Description:
By secondary structure, the protein is α+β, with helices and mostly antiparallel strands. It has a single domain, classed as Alpha-Beta Plaits (2-Layer Sandwich). Helices cover 25% and strands 22% of the residues. A hairpin with a 5-residue loop joins strand 4 (70-72) and strand 5. The longest helix has 15 residues, at 141-155. One iron/sulfur cluster is lined by residues 23, 26, 39-40, 53, 112-115, 125-127. The site of one iron/sulfur cluster has 13 residues, from helix 3.
Amino acid sequence: MRKQAILIDASDCTGCNSCTYKCIQEFGAHEPAALGLFRTVALINDKGVFHRQCMHCKEPQCVIASAGAMERSEYGAVLLDATKLTNPKEVEESCPFGVLRQDEKYNGLIKCNMCAHRVSEGRPVACSEACPVSAIQCGDYETIVAIAKQKAARGKLTIYGLKENGGTNVLMLMKGKPAESGYPQVPASRAKPRRSASAPAAGRGKSAKRKTTGKGR
Length: 217
Ligand code: SF4
Ligand code: SF4
């Protein structure tokens, strides 16, 4: 299978979190969601909307840290086998994007798996299907990169994920600089593992909050 990618355009996103709710439903992940653990979430700050989810790095530090519990699939998704995970805290801290989430009450890690069950059947990822304003697209990596570049040129947007951490299979589009929206500054070369104490806010800061619609939690 060819490499797959997801494009999230924050300039189109309204922050309704339909993607978040659809993902919870798709995986029956209500228990972690009740603890504030999501595979994807749209967060609001004073600059607008930004998304926090696994970027599916081409050179993922988490895979190394996981000691065999994680792998990068042939189509580019970074997958977690929770039954093999023995060191969730260490894996959480290895991610330079700070997207992995753990909770003492939840025995494990929550991360996007790029809807592996759907992708293997040639179906779109659930979050893209649920987005009412088509802010999330998925498909072949090359096609998604071409779409991202077209949209970036047309709307004067920044693409996040082409170079960060050696490139990722999730690309984000936004107005202005990524750091202004809330995305961590991650170098192009493989970044050093992130440590929670010095991590950027990336959705946990006081200025970031999840916009709710009254639907679900
Ligand atoms: S974003 Fe973090 S969790 Fe996802 S593949 Fe990269 S290092 Fe791993
Ligand atoms: S690709 Fe699938 S697992 Fe990942 S955030 Fe979207 S719905 Fe959730």
